[in-house]
Fold this protein.
Amino acid sequence: MTLGFYPGCSLKGSSREYSESVLAVSKAFDINLEEIKDWNCCGATAAHNMNKELSLALPARILSLAEKQGLTEIVVPCAACYSRLTVTKHELSKDATLKAAVTEANGLEYTGSVSVLNIVQFLDKYITPNLENRVVKPFDHKVACYYGCLLVRPHEILKFDREEDPQSLDVLMLKAGATPIDWAFKTECCGAGLSVSRTSSVGRLSGKIIGDAKDRGAVAVIVACPMCHSNLDMRRDAINSYLGEKIDIPVLYITQAIGLALGLDRKALGLQRHFVKVTV
Amino acid sequence: MSSDTHHSGIAGLGGEVLEHTEVKVSHCYQCGKCSAGCPLSEEMDYPPSVIMRMLQTGNPVLEDKVLRSFSIWVCLTCEMCFARCPMSIDIPKMMDFLREKSINEKKANPKAKEIVAFHKSFLDSIKFTGRLYEIGLFVDYKTRTLKILEDLALAPKMMKRGKLNIIPELIKDRSGIAAIFRKSNKKNKN
Amino acid sequence: MSKIGVFVCHCGENISATVDCAKVAETAGNYDGVAFSVDYKYMCSDPGQNLIKSAIKEKGLTGVVVASCSPRMHEPTFRKACAEAGLNPFMCEMANLREHCSWVHEKGEATTEKAIDLVRILVEKVKYNHSLNEIKVPVTKTALVIGGGIAGIQASLDIANTGHKVILIEKDPSIGGHMSQLSETFPTLDCSQCILTPRMVEVAQHPNITLYTYAELESLEGFIGNFKAKIRRKSKSIDEKLCTGCGQCTTKCPVKKIPSEFNEGLGKRTAIYVPFPQAVPNKPVIDRINCTYYIKGKCKVCEIVCPTKAIRFDQEDQIMEVEVGAIVIATGFTVKQPDFFPEYGYGKYPDVITGLQFERLASASGPTLGEIRRPSDDKVPEKIVFLACAGSRDPAKGIPYCSKICCMYIAKHAMLYQHKVHGGKSYVFYMDIRAGGKQYEEFVRRAIEDDGVNYVRGRVSRIYEKNGKLIVNGVDTLLNAMPVEIEADMVVLATAGIANEGAEELAQKLHISYDPYKFFAEAHPKLKPVETNTAGIFLAGACQAPRDIPESVAMASGAAVKVAGLFSQDELTREPIIAVVNRQAPPVYSSCVGCFLCVSACPYQAIEKEEIKNRNGELIKLIAKVNPGLCQGCGTCVAFCRTKSIDIQGYTHEQMYTEVMALLNEY
């Protein structure tokens, strides 16, 4: 089976282990992820902070390219890209003038026919039905599933899981053999795009998340967003200095955790790329 | 453009907000739930509900303070305020509009220099290559902010872990991307 | 030949400011059949009415058109004036020059032209009016009161004390309603049960009141003065005549862990139970869903221990039909279970409770005997947080309205907490303090100033549990929205007051209207607050909107007076605006062809089949016949009739046609 694939910039750079693990898990289930040809950056936070039309035109180009390539369903593992693509679809579907302006700027036809799957939707639809009998090494740990902001909010547009105390990652991890904990920071913001420009804020916000996960006995944090991952993993020094202690709970992408449960090679899942050593 | 001519019939910045984002500032009844849930509230000069209140007054002095505030830049668009707002007010969308206007009117708060610089570097990177080129972004950002020493240790660590591309990924249709930037900028920069 | 009088009213300046009234009167005076026309400043005043009366007498008028305000306002006034002058009141018509013309148009010729048209239409119509007589119907002088909370109790007692019979039905095993659950009442802090239970006993003992608990309305037919109600008496599984209420059964029942409804789930009850010690009647019922015998077919411990052999496992629901003349609905309200507040963790954290649950904790008859102890571990909370507007004034959660009672009961809760837990700290997060009521504002000030309750203006964003504490994230909007984080031991949510489950179905059974929130609708928001749009059915208490005790009681007494007023007459008169089937001389008898589409169309079952027989008793024709007692004059049958054989009296085909033609200037 073949599905469309939009990796986004992070998955080609600082979060390449996410891409590696998504592809490894897909391969294990004979799913071919076909990259959108000549895709561009979705514009992320920067575009919608600075220029509304640009923030819609960039994702629209991606969707148009997917249409051109004959893809009907695209997998978008990055929560931020997923959010931008879904918001763009929503905005263009309700505003014909905007759609015309964006189509004009892009010089590409856009119909909005491509459906966008986030990582959980992808796993739920294509992996979970056969997951439990494929698990060879249950991920038998207490885990804190962290959803962040963009996977579940705003619900009016994304219509995915629930905004407060979401469950979809927890259910997936349960099937991979883990024990998801009930904790308080599932959807609190990690600091997101302030990673570089205001690292101290990230230390505080991500610190509360890591701190709560640790206090409640989690041995790993499971994420579905490269931005969350880089803040919780790469910014661990800032986190530790905010908390005043050294916490070495690793942060895994959901696909890495599932990959481990499937018995896939640790290197193929990119676990060696993390800043906080993955000991689980 | 005179603020009295907005279709909304609401004068001032509140009227512009309504026109561009469908957010009606008078809809806010000042419960403060947005500020209570905002992760960045304590770093803001005016928490979200106070921004709403300032816009509700229609006072040009306060509206100017909104556009010059640090709040609008430290807002992460995490959507928590919108998710919990009892009146379903799309504050994040309003913040996007205020930021864009603040930049266009050259009113961005000096404290937000780094944040604005980062966004600009980010967009520049996409503008020229089509995709984010992280090393380029860092270099550009550091040039803009002169924060040369910050995060200096991070790059080699990332490099070691294979997290940084030395050479940017260039997409083929770079002229197409440049056109998108050109066309969307025209409308904004008056 | 018609002799019609036209009376054009200025309504002060309401009409004359934009309409040339003199010209209207003058023009009307030239119409065929108009014998008299005049304009006057206030036609509804005594001199104005006298103008009409004397014209009827002096000119021998056969019809009257008053051109003034809406008939809703003064039709009864002018009809009465006509009747006093000897003219059949239904020969009087009103042209609405105010609401339909002067108020909605600018001054000008066109406006006066329109006024002239309006008058002309009715001049032509009134030529085809017929004398009609009001319909008289008998009154059954028994009232049905639905709901045995404080409103139903008050209404029942007030009606019964005027000497009329009352049937009171209550769906629960005991009367008392929410008021019986409350601890103390604002703003006087008197004990709720102490003031309520004497009333409950009075109801049970009153010779004019028949009480059926565990009973619900099944269906309702009929109309004002003549309702037929079917009541379902749910099986209590006991013989009430034999049961003495000794309590042996409830003591010995082995199923003891059922969450008590009366204690809002904070206490437990048995499967055979009396909801609370002061219940009226103080006799148990068996909850068949939880009773072991009904689940597994064996147990019967209650039957074994009952000294009077009153247990009846095979008892069935009974449907009882009663005839009543008026109905008071007092079904009350319920509180929204705050499980739609995931950010506040209700249902997840046992120490996040509702206001009604707090009442049970604070009540001397409650599960903690009045000590404030938190559900999770029975500890006395050292820090407690009350959240106002948990659901109310929250369109995102579906409830835009203010529940009205919460501000006051929160102040009371915080006050009771401060009185009971010395050294405890209490916080109230609020948006506004709505304390409009006698002694209410003073009460809230006492809570703040004398009892040291900390009021924080701001809504809480979320609550989560950490190390046995509930972390409450709020802000103080009076301090530049400064974050306020409180580590609380217990949190009380003032959840919204909402309509009862099943309110919609009940309204449909009763043919009354309800608002978008399923609260029952009053007939007029100001002037008819206890009436419904269905004559003879009245409202009391929180089934109409969230209400506190004094308001519920006042409404109940108001509804009782309406019922007593109705019962003070032996017969009721109704307007004869009803459907009639065409009748003609033999051999046609009627243009009705007997298709009886009207019978199936009538929403009031008011149309029956009539046999027309000859002198030998042989059937000649079967035609439709309208029962004037049941017909409400809605006109549905008229629209359905294929041969135009049904007319609404006062609004016949002929009259309508004439009006339209008059407007088209065909006359």
Remarks:
- Chain B touches chain A through 60 residues (CB under 8 Å).
- Chain B has two domains: 3-108, 111-188.
- Chain B is about 55% helix and 0% strand.
